[in-house]
Write a structure and sequence with these properties.
The complex is a heterodimer of chains A (312) and B (267). Chain A is mainly alpha-helical. Helix content of chain A is 69%, strand content 3%. The longest helix of chain A has 32 residues, at 91-122. Chain A is globular, with a radius of gyration of 25 Å. The longest helix of chain B has 34 residues, at 60-93. In chain B, α2 (51-57) crosses α11 (236-265) and α3 (60-93) crosses α6. Chain B is globular and about 75 Å long. Chain B has a single domain (51-266), classed as MetI-like fold (Orthogonal Bundle), CATH 1.10.3720.10. By secondary structure, chain B is an all-alpha fold. Helices cover 76% and strands 0% of the residues of chain B. Chain B is built from eleven helices and no strands. The chains are: A mainly alpha (312), B mainly alpha (267). Chains A and B meet through α2, α4, α5, α6 and α9 of A and α1, α3, α4, α5 and α6 of B.
């Protein structure tokens, strides 16, 4: 009876359990079977296949041929010259580094905006708190592509922001589109709620007397923030950071629409290889590289969480 | 004690929060305002006009994309919510569950993977299997990544709910099916509802997977909007966007109100 200690109290099974039919007696099996089947078919098998494709060779007419060939991975760093010599090309490496940089910056900017807002909302009276949480959540229900499109209008030629800057003497006909800054603006805007909500959840649970205690011990507001509030909000900050960092790393819409064709990120590069590029092994190799970064981040944060748990 | 001495207050947070909420809402307002612009060029205001709304509503490609999106989202929501409900029941109420932790991780796996990786992996699988039906491909792929969004609220609901009611029903000789139907299901309904709403929203919103898997007749709404943006922004797009923003906000408000009411009743 694995659930006998529900709520931490020893509990008695009902003394006269009604005989369950097959389904209920085997609830764990029948209940979990559909999700295992769905995930195996739509997730685990495809992941194995993409790993296999990343080490397959390029097909003559697009697609791929089974086999073992590391050309896909090699192409990330080296270009094969016409006589077969390998030449280091930083082209894709710089896309990878830009992707990491943009995803990291997005996460940090979201964090910088989310922590004060989550703290402010958590300290409001209940009714206003509920209203503010609702207001933070609401834009998240608007389709991602429309939120990116809104930023295309704002930053684009004749948009409100260039007009605003023009008013202060900047040259006319400006556009702030098609650069990393534009991509970043749309990414921070899109992923913001994913950061605010977990941070809010952990700040709300925070014991207010600890802040008062810090104050009684002559900690000023900033010391209290650094030494009491932020460490206690760490679980929310970590899960918010993962929730933002992972999709930001794989972003496709923002770099494609805001960055223009030249400002690629790993996500849009993968899409290109499977769409027009027709180099599946290379696209799969980039996808595996992207996945590797995600796994590294997950392992690092899981370790950190357990290390924290052990010391407190 | 005045607010000035409250140690939990940080100066400047109130004005900062005003700016923050302006930042959240101004972009949406900008789209709606420009949708009433008569001029063909979005940024140059000429005069108020509703004509782009008329042309948006008469756009058959748009309506077809909307139909495809609604159909895929409806199938994915039903499928994902059913799978998620069964998994949550098994994990939270099953006895002697082996692989409990692993099963939970598997259900939540789509949340931890970048969508583009999953999308191309699914694309390869379907091309190897020779699946041609665009709608079928979309429905399967959407069901998979919608499942965790349906699962989490249902799980949270089951976790927050005392087993006393179900045990009382069992003590009164209710069969497990009756207990489920008359006790458990009504109690988890708010969680089930918000799970389904989230799954629906995530499916409607999806661009990356739909764009990879869509073929001729199965263009979803975000994919259609993307193609409109790429082909040079037509002012009609602003009207489409405004209608969709309005629909999302109304839908979200209803969903959040129902969830909040459910939360109050059972706390």
């Amino acid at each position: 009876m694995s659930d006998a200690t529900h709520h931490g109290l020893p509990m008695q099974e009902p003394s006269h359990p009604p005989a369950g039919r097959g389904f209920w007696r085997n609830l764990p099996f029948w209940g979990l079977l559909p999700s295992w089947l769905l995930m195996a078919f739509a997730l685990l098998v495809p992941m194995i296949i993409i790993a296999a494709v990343s080490v397959a060779s390029r097909g003559a007419y697009g697609g791929f041929d089974w086999g073992f060939d590391l050309t896909g991975y090699r192409q990330i760093l080296f270009n094969e010259g016409w006589s077969g010599e390998l030449e280091f090309t930083p082209q894709y490496l710089s896309i990878i580094l830009r992707t990491l940089g943009l995803a990291l910056t997005t996460t940090l900017l979201c964090l910088v905006l989310a922590v004060p807002m989550a703290y402010f909302i958590a300290n409001q009276p209940p009714a206003r708190k509920a209203a503010l949480v609702y207001l933070v959540t609401l834009p998240f229900w608007v389709s991602m592509i429309l939120r990116v499109y809104a930023w295309m209008i704002i930053l684009g030629r004749d948009g409100p922001l260039p007009r605003f800057v023009e008013f202060f003497g900047a040259p006319a006909g400006l556009s702030f589109m098609y650069n990393d800054g534009a991509t970043l603006a749309a990414m921070v805007y899109s992923y913001m709620p994913l950061m605010v909500l977990p941070v809010f959840a952990s700040i709300e649970k925070l014991d207010g007397t600890l802040i008062e205690a810090a104050h009684d011990l002559y900690g000023n507001r900033w010391v209290t923030l650094r030494r009491v509030i932020l460490p206690l909000a760490a679980p929310g900050i970590i899960s918010g950071a993962i929730l933002v960092f992972v999709p930001a790393l794989g972003a496709v819409l923002e770099p494609t629409l805001m960055g223009g064709g030249k400002q690629m990120m790993m996500g849009s590069l993968i899409q290109l290889q499977f769409g027009g590029g027709r180099n599946w092994p290379f696209g799969a190799a980039i996808a595996m590289t992207l996945l590797a970064f995600v796994v590294i981040v997950l392992i690092l944060t899981a370790r950190r969480a357990t290390a924290k748990g052990a010391t407190t | 004690m005045s607010a000035h001495h409250d140690v939990k207050r940080y100066p400047g947070l109130r004005p900062l929060s005003v700016l923050f909420f302006l930042y959240l809402y101004l972009p949406l307002v900008v789209v709606v305002v420009y949708s009433f612009n008569d001029n063909k060029i979005t940024g140059v205001w000429t005069q108020f006009s509703l004509k782009w709304y008329g042309s948006a509503l008469n756009n058959t490609a748009l309506m077809n994309a909307l139909k495809t999106s609604l159909l895929v989202a409806a199938i994915a929501t039903m499928f994902a919510t059913t799978v998620a409900l069964l998994a949550a029941l098994a994990i939270m109420r099953g006895k002697n569950v082996r692989f409990r932790k692993l099963s939970e991780t598997v259900v939540n796996l789509p949340l931890l993977l970048p969508e583009i990786v999953l999308a191309v992996a699914t694309l390869i699988l379907f091309s190897l299997l020779g699946v041609q039906n665009g709608l079928l491909k979309l429905a399967i792929a959407h069901s998979a990544f919608c499942t965790p969004f349906a699962f989490l609220p249902i799980r949270a609901r089951l976790q927050g709910m005392s087993m006393d009611y179900e045990e009382a029903a069992a003590d009164l000789y209710a069969t497990r099916w009756t207990t489920f139907r008359r006790v458990t299901l009504p109690l988890i309904l708010p969680g089930l509802f918000s799970g389904a709403m989230l799954a629906f929203l995530i499916s409607m919103d999806d661009f990356i997977t739909s764009n990879m898997l869509s073929s001729g007749g199965t263009t979803t709404l975000p994919v259609y909007i993307f193609s409109l943006i790429r082909s040079g922004t037509s002012p009609e797009l602003n009207a489409i966007a405004s209608l969709l923003i309005l629909a999302s906000l109304v839908l979200a408000t209803v969903a959040l109100l129902v969830a909040a009411r459910g939360g109050r009743e059972n706390s």
